[in-house]
Amino acid sequence: MVKLTGYKKIKTAVFISGNGSNLKSLIKFSKTRKSPITINLIITNNPKAKGLKLGKINKIKKKSFNFKKKNIENQVLSVLKKHEIKMICLAGFMKVLSKNFITKFRGKILNIHPSLLPKYKGLNTHQRVLSNNEKYSGCTVHFVNSKLDSGKIILQKKVKITKNETKKSLAKKVLEQEHKLYPQAILKVFSL
Hints:
- The protein is α/β, with parallel strands linked by helices.
- The chain has helices spanning 21-30, 52-57, 72-82, 99-104, 125-131, 167-191, and strands at 10-16, 37-44, 61-64, 87-90, 109-113, 136-143, 153-160.
- It has 2 domains: 7-106, 3-Layer(aba) Sandwich (Rossmann fold); 113-192, Formyl transferase, N-terminal domain (Rossmann fold), CATH 3.40.50.170.
- A 7-stranded mixed β-sheet has the order 3-2-1-4-5-6-7.
- Helix 1 (21-30) links the parallel strand 1 and strand 2 (37-44).
- The radius of gyration is 16 Å and the shape is globular.
């Protein structure tokens, strides 16, 4: 568990792979008075990730790593240590972190997932939700542990699936809720 000490904000790294819309929402949140975090580092496995532009705009340091390389996580850990990062938010990060990496940040890595966990772990969630004729979907912020999308749930938000819902419309609906849920979940973590 992350404990907030005094009024000092916790240095946080956000891991992304794509557009960075959740990163954008987290940056906006981090600049508010009530936010317990500052975003000091953006890490990606995709040097072409559009979300990296947000780093430039907001003057946040960014690093790209080839996660296919052997022992790359040790380099990532050393960069995190150098920047005194105490918490990690995974936001559309499309790589699975090793048990060793997770152990080093136990209880300090959060992830947002586009389904109501424990249902629909992994990829292609919206299609699977629709294929199973679910009435609801949503998003979940959870602690990361060594099993995929299986850590302790912090908060969830439900969305209703309409009659003519498509994968694209559902993704958009869920993403809008993700942007609201992630900051709420961070506030909850710091109040635990």
